[in-house]
From TrEMBL:
Quaternary assembly: Homodimer.
Protein name (database record): Phosphoserine aminotransferase
Leader peptide range in chain numbering: none
Enzyme Commission (EC) number: 2.6.1.52
Cofactor(s) the record lists: pyridoxal 5'-phosphate
Record-linked NCBIfam families: PRK05355.1 (NF003764), serC_1 (TIGR01364)
Primary location class: cytoplasm
Segments forming domain Aminotransferase class V: 8-352
Locations listed in the record: Cytoplasm
């Protein structure tokens, strides 16, 4: 038997126990081949079947149309902050909406390529004035004419701010969905490109997924490293060099698991329930608070503060003693944060809520 505790880490995040158990059973000997998946050639027929299946499952879960490529790359979501202008800027303008730490990093990195002369980078608006608790109204966005793309972050993991509806702009949309991919249904064809680091809703760290519309593939700068070149990686089926083989395999197991849970619609319902339970607990008390505008409250990452911040340390030591792990907020925001990705069951959120109410009774 094993010992697993409610883990609210923002990433690398908790994995479905069923997936880890299955991986454990296959660890030494995958399907009678006498070797582990991590010992296989990435060019072998067995491994190619593993990756092909993972892609098929992801396409099914997200309903990805045929005119989109799905790439399984490395370097995390952060390397995409460079890959995007290198592949797509094409001497035009790249529009960026800043709504928190991650979209802020994306525009900052892109600016380096403006200096290199690859095009113009425009921050169309920033939510900084609200401390990133709200999204600037679209009427205030300074959109560029004929932009090559419009970049935004669908879910700001640190600030707990989510943009649920794809913005309606003329340029192809690029969304950083690192912390919201597969959390509920989206319409892939609203986007030119979607990318997500794996270590939250997909699998272990070391893998980043890029979903890109084919007509955007051929605009890369000659300075774009081949490993970051989307057209090249599409042609090589994400195997221009040795891919993150084991992480890719585990991601495929997570896709199987998600399908068994009923897919994104089913998990989306549970995700809403989990988030509502936690927000209701916060809103129904004057002891806890969450500052984010209601329409943009994340269903994946829920930061909260205590009215008396001198109790923060005690909250963290007591919650850890109660077996509730990784509730410390990010230093940019302070307080606490509960990340409640797909693999966090409703029961864990109930345990957290029970603990919070108990703590409030003792210390209010
Ligand atoms: N974007 C978002 C929304 C994130 O949450 C993160 C990681 N926390 C990143 C980008 C960066 O991801 P990586 O560490 O994989 O580069």
């Amino acid at each position: 038997d094993f010992h697993r505790l409610p883990n609210f880490c923002a990433g690398p995040a908790t994995m479905p126990t069923e997936v880890l158990t299955l991986a454990q059973s296959e660890l030494l000997d995958w399907q009678g081949r006498g070797m582990s998946v991590m010992e296989m050639s990435h060019r072998s027929a067995d491994y190619m079947a593993i990756t092909a299946k993972a892609e098929t499952k992801l396409r099914g879960l997200m309903d990805i149309p045929d005119n989109y490529k799905v790439l399984f790359l490395q370097g995390g979501a952060s390397l995409q902050f460079s890959a995007i202008p290198l592949n797509l800027l094409n001497n035009q303008a790249g529009d960026y909406l800043t709504t928190g730490a991650w979209s802020g990093k994306a525009v900052k990195e892109a600016k380096r390529y403006e200096k290199l002369g690859l095009g113009r980078i425009a921050e169309v608006a920033t939510g900084k004035g609200s401390n990133f608790t709200d999204v600037p109204a679209q009427s205030e966005w300074q959109l560029s004419d004929n932009a090559a793309y419009f970049h935004y972050c669908a879910n700001e993991t640190i600030h707990g701010l989510q943009i649920f509806d794809a913005p309606k702009v003329d340029a192809p949309l690029i969304a950083d969905m690192s912390s919201s991919i597969l959390s509920e249904r989206i319409n892939v064809s609203d986007f030119g490109m979607i990318y997500a680091g794996a270590q939250k809703n997909i699998g272990p760290a070391g893998l980043v997924i890029v979903i890109i519309r084919e007509d955007l593939l051929d605009n890369a700068s000659e300075w774009c490293p081949m490993l970051m070149n989307y057209a090249h990686q599409a042609e090589k089926e994400s195997m221009s060099n040795t891919p993150a083989t084991y992480a890719w395999y585990l991601s495929g197991l997570v896709f199987d698991w998600l399908e068994e849970q009923g897919g994104v619609d089913a998990i989306g319902k549970i995700n809403r329930q989990k988030a509502e339970l936690l927000y209701a607990t916060i809103d129904n008390s004057s002891f806890y608070a969450n500052p984010v505008a209601k329409a943009h409250r994340s269903i994946m990452n829920i930061p909260f503060t205590l009215a008396d911040s001198s109790l923060d340390k005690l909250f963290l030591t007591e919650s850890e003693k109660a077996g509730l792990l990784n509730l410390k907020g990010h230093r940019d925001v302070g307080g606490m944060r509960a990340s409640i990705y797909n693999a966090v069951p409703l029961d864990w959120v109930q345990q957290l809520v029970d603990f919070m109410q108990d703590f409030e009774k003792k210390h209010a």
